[in-house]
Amino acid sequence: MDLSITFLGGVGTVTGSKYLLETNGLRILVDCGLFQGYKQLRLRNWAALPVEPVSIDAVILTHAHLDHSGYVPLLIRNGFKGPVICTQGTKDLCEILLPDSGFLQEKDADFANRHGYSKHQPALPLYTKKDAEKSLESFQTVAFDTPHDVLGKLTVCFKCAGHILGAAIVEVSIKGRKIVFSGDLGRYGDATMLDPAPIREADYLLVESTYGNRLHEALEPEEILAEAISTTARRGGTVIIPAFAVGRAQSILLHIHRMKKAQRIPDLPVFLDSPMAIRASNVFQDHVGVHRLTAQECDWERNAVRYTESVEQSKSLSQNRMPKVIISASGMATGGRVLHHLKHYAPDPRNLILFAGYQAGGTRGAAISAGAKSVKIHGHEVPIRAKVSNLDMLSAHADANEIMQWLGNFERPPTLTFVTHGEPDASDQLRHRIESELGWRCSVPYYLETTALV
C-alpha cells in the first residue's frame, strides 16, 4: 500500500487513541493514548504494541489527556527514538499529566502490594514517574496554524480544537493527500475554551464520536450547579466533584467563583484537592489569549479556592464535618485522591457525588452514575448512599449536533470519513447521521483494521 492507516486504539471505545500512518517504510503515530475503563481494554496497555516502537518515526499528539498521550512513556521505554510533536499547551500539560500518571501507577502498585489485593506478585506499575519525566525530553512544540515539516516527508498543521488547553485538530499532508484528525472537539460557546476551528477540506477525515448519539442538556450549568450545592449544604452534606484535572476542574472553579460572587450559593469553603489540577490551573495563567479566561479569572486562589497540596491536607478534609465542596481528580473515579474521598463520603446520604462529564464504560464513575449500590475501592466494597448526579452540560466534548455543525464547515466531502473515539452505538449513530444528512461515505473502523488511503 502506498499510504495506509491502522487503528491501534480509539475505536470501539473512547480511550487508547492511536492511529498509525504508513508509507514506504515511514511510520507516523497520531496520538499515543492509554486504554481505560473495562479490564479487557486496560489489558491492552500491558500487551506488546502490534508494531515495534523502534520502527515508529514520529508521534503527533492532538492533546494532553491520558487517553491520547498516556502511552508515550511506555513507547519510549520500549524503544521509540523519534520526536513527539504537539502544541506548547499540550507539552506544558503533559509535563504535569505524564509524571503524575507514573507516580499514581507506582503508588497504586505499592498500595496493592502492601494490602495484598493484587492477583500479581508483586504488582508493578505500567511505567514509573522517572519513565514519564524522561519521555518529556522527546517533545517538540509547534505553534497553532503554522505548517511544520516532519522528517522532510510530511507536513503537520495544528488548528484549535477547543476541548482543553493546547488541544488541536491535526492536519497531516503527505503524498499529496490531506488527512485530518479531529482529536477531541470542544464545544461552541464554552465558558473557558475557544470554539473549534473550521476545517474546509480533507481527503480523509477521522472524527471523534464520544457524544455521537447524545445531546447535552440545554440548561444553564450555573443554575444546576447552584441548586445542587445549595441543596446539599442545607442538609449538612459535602459535595464531591470527581473532575478531570485539565479543563473540567478549571471550568467548575470558574462557575463556582461566579456563583459565589453573585451570591447564588452559600459561602462554603471550596477545595481543589489535586496537585495535578492545581498545576494545570496555574498553566492557564501562562496561556492567556488561547482560552476565554482573563488573567484575573485564572487567579484561582485569589478567587477563594483553597489548594490542598499535601497528603496530610487531603486527609484532613475527611475529618472536617462542615459542608464544603471538594474538587478532586480523577474525572471517572479511576484513581487519585478522589477515591479516598469517595470511601469516606459516599456512604452518607447527606452528601452528593457530582460527576462533570462523560463516564466511560467499565469505570467506577460509570458504575456510580448508573446507580450501583456499591463499588470496589482499594480492594473493598464501598456502599453508595450519597446522592449522585452528572453535569453533562459541562462536558468538554462536542455533542452530536455540535459535531455535525463542525462538519458543516467542509466545502467538499472527504473521500472517506472514519468515525472513531466512541462507544459502538455512539459511533454508529453518528455514522448514520453523516451519511443521511451530508451524503458522505463513512466507516466505523474496528480495532487493528488497516485501510489503504488511495
Automatic annotation (TrEMBL):
Residues 249-368 form the Beta-Casp domain. The keyword Plastid does not apply. Keywords: Exonuclease, Hydrolase, Nuclease, Plasmid. Residues 15-229 form the Metallo-beta-lactamase domain. It holds the Pfam family Beta-Casp. InterPro entries: Beta_Casp, MBL, Metallo-B-lactamas, RibonucZ/Hydroxyglut_hydro, RMMBL. GO terms for molecular function: exonuclease activity; RNA endonuclease activity. Gene3D superfamilies: 3.40.50.10890, Ribonuclease Z/Hydroxyacylglutathione hydrolase-like. This is Putative exonuclease of the beta-lactamase fold involved in RNA processing.
